[in-house]
Design a protein that fits this description.
mainly alpha; about 75% helix
């Protein structure tokens, strides 16, 4: 029963991370930015990323927490695993680490450059460039989460 609950939360967080990234970057943003050339701190791109970035980061924290807890709960069953399980697991962790650090950088560094404009007005001229970087890195996070999701499903059926 505990395993079912842990994996349920793991999958819920994976769905939230990938679902929100896909919807915001591939559906919402292209629609609201149609015909718009310049971005600034009032543009929909920033309003969207200001919510998306912490949501994805929190989901990744939940994924790491539930993943580690699952391993701890089942550690005595880990001895009978087929060879190659940990190769797959290690590959998944590379993508998880990549997604974690890009998401952390967007959430706690780039996002703050824009939200703190009244304290650091010198950042104002760099807003379009910062938003471009935030979108690019969020797309990278999206691909890494998608690959980690695929590897997670493979892992569970290995
Ligand atoms: C981007 C982050 C992650 C995503 C998208 C992800 C996704 C998934 C998915 C889809 C499953 C399959 C569940 C099932 O079908 O039953 C899974 C299983 C699992 N994940 Fe993750 N996961 C992530 C991060 C992590 C982390 C950080 C850990 C551990 C430190 C972890 C450990 C596990 C374990 C142990 C399983 C079960 C494998 C088995 O049943 O043998 N995951 N994950």
């Amino acid at each position: 029963m505990t395993n079912v609950i842990i994996i349920f939360i793991h999958l819920l967080a994976a769905g939230t991370a990938l679902g929100s990234l896909l919807y915001c970057l591939k559906v919402y943003l292209p629609v609201v930015e149609k015909g718009q050339t310049e971005r600034d701190e009032n543009s929909p791109a920033y309003k969207m990323l200001d919510l998306l970035a912490p949501t994805v980061f929190a989901s990744l924290l939940i994924l790491i927490g539930t993943g580690v807890y699952y391993l701890l709960e089942n550690y005595s069953a880990q001895v009978g695993l087929k060879p190659g399980y940990y190769n797959l697991f290690g590959t998944k962790m590379v993508f998880v680490a990549g997604a974690f650090f890009t998401s952390m950088y967007v959430t706690f560094s780039l996002r703050i450059h824009i939200s703190d404009l009244d304290l650091s007005p010198e950042n104002k001229k760099r807003v379009p460039e910062t938003l471009r970087k935030m979108i690019g890195l969020s797309k990278m996070t999206m691909w890494m989460v998608a690959i980690a999701l695929f590897l997670g499903i493979w892992l569970a059926r290995y």
